Amino acid sequence: SCHTIVPLTDLILAPLQVAEVSVVGADDETRGQVVCALIRLRPDANGEHNPEPRVMTKDSSASNGLEWLQTWLGERVAQYKVPSRMLEVDDIPKNAMGKVNKKAIAADYFG
């Protein structure tokens, strides 16, 4: 059988609640580099919208609103592909040309 390989970014965008995403690699002291995701949810995603950024890590037991997405991804991709850190933001940073600024995201949000 043939399996279609779906980029992680496209998979994260699959749930209707997710409006925009940027997946970046960030330095990690123990693992070298880890997968991280900056996520903008639709304002009506959960009936309300909290403008405060919320960070979630795999080790976090705190409820922060993105656990459902990590669980959903974990059911669809290998565990090492699930972002170790996920952060909800109101806007994903872009450069003057309107392209996602991955270097700034990695440094400013996950550095």
Can you lay out the helices and strands and say which pair or pack?
Elements: H1 8-13, E1 18-28, E2 32-41, E3 54-57, H2 67-74, E4 85-88, H3 102-110
Parallel strand pairs: 2-4
Antiparallel strand pairs: 1-2, 3-4
Largest sheet: 4 strands, mixed
Strand arrangement, major sheet: 1-2-4-3
Shape: globular
Using only CA atoms, what is the Rg?
Answer: 14 Å
Q: What percentage of amino acids are in beta strands?
A: 25-35%
Look at the helices and sheets and give the structural class.
alpha+beta
Summarize this entry quickly:
The chain is an alpha+beta fold and 111 residues long.
Keywords:
111 residues, alpha+beta, 4-stranded mixed β-sheet, 4 strands, globular
Describe this structure in words.
With 111 residues, this protein is of the alpha+beta class. The protein is built from three helices and four strands; from the N terminus they run αβββαβα. A four-stranded mixed sheet has the order 1-2-4-3. It is globular and about 35 Å long.
